Amino acid sequence: MNTLIPLTLFLTISGSLSKPSHHDHGGFTVDLIHRDSPLSPLYNPTYSLTDRLHNAFHRSMSRAFRLSKTLGFASKMEADIFGIPGEYIMNIQIGTPPVQVLGIADTGSDLTWAQCEPCKNCYKQVGPPLLVPASSSTYHAQSCQSKACEALEDNLSCDSQNICQYKMSYGDRSYSTGDLAMDTFWFGQTSFKHVVFGCGHDNNATFNENISGIIGLGGGPLSIINQLNPVIQGKFSYCLISQFNDTTSNQTSKIHFGDGVNISGPSVVSTPLVKKAPSTYYYVTLESVSIGIRDLSYKQSISKSGVNEEGNIIVDSGTTLTYLPSEFYSYLSSGLANAIDGVTTKDPNGILELCYKDLYLSRVPTVTFRFTGADVVIPTVNMFLEVEEGVSCLTIVPSDDLAIFGNLLQVNFMVGFDLVNQKVSFMPTDCTKCTSL
Q1: Residue 174 is assigned to a structural domain of this protein
Q2: Range of the domain at 169
Q3: Taking the C-alpha atoms of 313, 105, 187 and 167 in order, what is their torsion angle to the nearest 10 degrees?
Q4: CA 280, CA 375: separation in Å to the nearest integer?
Q5: Which of 169, 258, 309, 379 has the most CB atoms at less than 10 Å from its CB?
């Protein structure tokens, strides 16, 4: 099924937005709080670093399974299912007067939704309050004939009062259903009117009690990115700090909406975004991966299995690990093992496949992901993570499903998306110094 939305429909939806009441010409910045940060409402102080890593890896497997299932892969992946589909939290407000919403920032979802009263079947939420539509003077439910409802395609139904009903599911029996609506959204002091979102009245999910719902940052017409297009011109960027480093535990990563971030200079590389269905995901083309001077052809490897060579991997901030096809992963891990020539050991979590005892990062060769038009040199600290004292493991794993360029490999890069010019850019950056982007 073709899930691409006609351009005229996208323009109608995005064009309904008013300009923000407060903004500068450079856009606006919001904190991205990693769920394991002490600043996060999901933080559990009793967890050790090993516990946090173990949970992050399992969430990564669960997310990769969900994203792959959306594309119709007959996944062979086995993992404990975690309902929370991402790693970063955003704090926004919805309504007039504004009500706090803590949502999972998800580049693998389009529709933003939050739990609403009356809620006949809600997961327990004790953090921010549930939204009360009747209390917001700017709330408007959408009819079944609205352009926003059309954009939902198969994920919709109509109730007896002609209100458009959405349903989002997440592959682990978690779902959210409710009214499709418009209301005012607040990002700090910047507000936008008439933003489409889901007001969830029936939500069966394994979400943490401090989380309101999902903030959709995908590429589809109902995502925040495309709805804010009249102001941000299809541009957003983020800079991720290491989430498993005690020295940065009290800092937040940043996401910027608009063109105020200067991603330019000799160190910037850009690669085309490839339009594919579903339009939610950010597809790029990986040509090869080099280990030192040795180049491993990714496109040639996957073409043997009949995989489309263009748009063969997605860039996703919500997946911790990077997933590559099993056959290619075998070439990559063998090449690394031959170059490192260290003492291998087993991952205590039983998830990662290439691990070393007392690894000196200086022994790891330079690894470059060669996307079309963009060579991204991966820092060795992103490639190998110390999962417990004295044991470091490769943060890339094999998968026969969807290939994903995960967030550990993106740490300390400014990653900029331009949906108008259809490209994504990478610039090496010390993200701890990006206080406001």
Answers
A1: yes
A2: 7-42+84-232
A3: 100
A4: 24
A5: 258
Average pLDDT value for the chain: 86
Based on the residue annotation, tell me whether 316 is a catalytic residue of this protein. Answer: yes
> Considering the domain boundaries, does residue 67 fall inside one?
no
* CATH code for the domain in which residue 334 is found: 2.40.70.10
What long-range pairs does 339-344 form, CB within 8 A, spacing at least 24? 339/291, 339/292, 339/364, 339/365, 340/364, 340/365
Do residues 16 and 157 both lie within one domain?
yes
Residues 318 and 181 in one domain: no
- Does the pLDDT of residue 10 top 60, yes or no? no
**Closest listed residue to residue 228, CA positions, set 33, 26, 27:** 27
Q: Are residues 266 and 225 in the same domain?
A: no
Residue 163 and residue 97 in one domain: yes
Structure tokens, 6:
């006609």
105 CB neighbour count, 10 Å cutoff:
26
Q: What is the pLDDT of residues 61-70, one digit of tens each?
A: 888 888 877 7
Structural domain includes residue 254 = no
Residues 381 and 335 in one domain: yes
- pLDDT tens, 107-146? 988 999 999 999 888 888 888 999 999 999 999 999 999 9
Calculate Rg over the CA atoms of the chain. 21
In a domain, 77, yes or no: no
* Amino acid symbol at 126: V
For position 248, what pLDDT does the model report?
61
Question: Which ranges of 269-359 would DSSP assign to H, the alpha helix?
Answer: 298-303, 326-340
Residue 63 · residue 77 · CB < 8 Å: no
Residue 175: how many other CB atoms lie within 10 Å: 16
Confidence of residue 7 (pLDDT cuts 50, 70, 90): very low
Catalytic residue among 31, 36, 106, 401: 106
Say yes or no: 210 and 129 in one domain: yes
Q: Are strands 88-94 and 28-34 parallel, antiparallel or unpaired?
A: antiparallel
User: Which amino acid does the sequence have at 364?
Assistant: V
232, 253, 273: which is the final residue of a domain? 232
Regarding whether 273 and 226 lie in a shared domain, the answer is no
- Note the pLDDT tens digit of each residue in 242-275: 888 766 667 899 999 998 777 888 899 999 999 9
CA-nearest of 325, 424, 428, 435 to 379 is 428
222 CB contacts (<8 Å, ≥6 apart)? 13, 110, 111, 148, 151, 152, 196, 216
E strands of 275-394, at which residues?
283-284, 286-291, 294-297, 313-315, 322-324, 344-345, 355-357, 367-371, 374-378, 384-388, 391-394
pTM of the model: 0.90
Say which of 31, 179, 259, 316 is annotated catalytic: 316
300 and 418 together in one domain: yes
